[in-house]
Amino acid sequence: MPGWTPASIPSNAASDLKVSVKFCGHCAPRMDMMELLGKLRAAMPWVEFHYYQPGLPADALLILNACQAECASRPPFPGPVILVSPGSVNHWPVPPEQLCGEIMSRLSALASGR
Amino acid sequence: MKTGQEYRDSLRNRNIKVYIKGQLLDSRDVIDHPYIRGHVNSAAKTYELAENPQFEDLMTATSHLTGKKINRFTHIHQSVDDLVKKVKMLRMISLNTGTCYQRCVGLDAVNAIYSVTYEMDQKLGTDYHQRLRKYLEYWQEEDLMVAGAMTDPKGDRSLRPSQQADPDMFVHVVKKDDKGIYLRGAKMHMTGMVNSHEMLIMPTSGFGEEDKDYAVCCALPVDAPGVIHIFGRQTNDDRKFEGEIDQGNARYGVVGGECLTILEDVFVPWERVFMCGEYQFSGMLVERFACYHRQNYGGCKGGVSDIVIGAAATVADMSGYGKATHIKDKLNEMIHLAETLYACSIACSAEGKPTAAGNYYVDPLLANVGKHNVTKLIYEIDRLAQDIGGGILATLPSEADFRSPEVGKYVDKYMRGVATVPTEDRMRMIRLVEVMTGGVALVESMHGAGSPQAQKIMYSKLSGLENKKKAAMKIAGVDPSKYTK
Fold it and tell me: Which of A22, A28, A34 faces B57 most closely, judged by CB atoms?
């Protein structure tokens, strides 16, 4: 897969990084964010990705927007939030083909920092 | 919330009377009839998508009555964000169905009735708003599909309801007692009525005191005693008895499946009556419903246009001319038109504001402009799709010929475009362009949510023409006060 390399499992990860995932609703699917999530799951098997539900414990909230409008609801979340759109991560420009790698780097850093 | 399957199952429990081509259908099997099942699939999508985490941000909301998570099609808009999300939801569902999913009409009706009953109660001392809130709780809890029923047959359009030779040309109250009211007349053009649970009856226009019996708004089950539905015909509807290919959109159908609904002295209990004789508020209700409904069209037709654009582009690719400059130019023009439609729906939502009842209402001028655009731009989008598709849209042999042991090999051979693309795939795309760009699909864009003249009437009322004249006079150095009456 171009633009990123598989993440190595951090020594302290112990396969228990939990990430809540929230989608925008895909009314303007410039990018298929379900596909992106599939790539993340395949590349980071040590991370538990689950769909966001209020009150469900998680180490991070990953908000996946299918277009640049970034209109997905932002639920209150007491931890790090990674906001993704086809051209950015947390408002920093990231080419679409590098999104997966960028998100993986951020999640790996979170796991290492715990 | 109901699942898609629970929605389908619940429809089988109705005792609904539906006639198609002179035949009364078995009420348990109505949703399986080839004329109807595509519309059921499409409406079921509004339930199925709400279950999917990928779409739930648009498809669900929080009830302001109960705090529970509900399907957005049962929601009273609580913010500008709710109005915007409604439009985005519609575009997204159209992208997944390529057609109408019918459920917006009831949503628009209840939002209009919500604010009008509140204002009516404040001015007249009635208690319609509390009745509606109670009914709405039931609606949300059961996740009902509720059809909106506004347009009457109208008879002689030059005459008011009470002047008609036949008083039933407009739905009216024929009797009242301590338990409720009795309705007679008919409603027309209802989208999704035969696959709904309930209907909301609304007056068809503003009425004077002489027509107060026609100022009626209420909710009733679609299978209430005395209710008869006659399903409307569509262009090429008998193709639905054949294979998939010739239908174009075999799973979801074309537009919403409209019908004529007869009300033969139908009883409605008082707790389901939200207007009965308050003629002063009938025009306000019609206007609010119309504006909510006109808000939708850049969302749903924007999404439908996405499919038309994608289909036309695919036909061009499969035929070997997808890279031609004039094709790219036409596709870009179609994209421009589709996004123009969408922009108006977003704009009228972004400019929304709260009503006295607290629910949010769109900017009426921009909502009307958006729907008016649909009466024109969809025709241009579809014209360009037909231009790109070519004459084969009108002359493609049938699926039966393609499957024929005798001539199938010729259809397969001569209907092929690019050698690597299977003929069947090309035929499917051509048929999709055909069914989406002609017949009822176009008429719906013209007249759904009101004909173009209905939108133009709103312009003179809402646009402030006199202020534009004054501004122009000031620019030209003319004193406006000399011309102000």
Answer: A22
